[in-house]
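[RESIDUES AND BACKBONE]
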Amino acid sequence: SPMARWCRLMAASPVIQQATQLAVGIANNQEAIFDATAQPLDALEGGMNPLQGGTPGGVVTRFPPEPSGYLHIGHAKAVLLNDYYARRYKGRLIVRFDDTNPSKEKEEFQSSILEDLGKLGVQPDVVTFT
């Protein structure tokens, strides 16, 4: 029917999906489901909140370490949080090495950071350099 076709068209629109997810988040309800045939999102881990406006496949997170030293606990927290949401929403995690302090950057630190990410169980989808 024309009405069913129009509803499917609206439900497939990324803008409508984001607006609906925002409305659901504001109402403190569960996340919106746009495609009943798609795999459902994993349940939220304890203490984690849904991303307002987050839609499956539409979440891209970025972790920008500066390769002038080794990772520390703050880096680990940030990358694990970014990785969690990228994976939960079937999105992507980008690791972008920023060269804000070129005189202190070393290849050793880049290699160490990537190795440490692997030890944390983080596999970036893309690694870029500025």
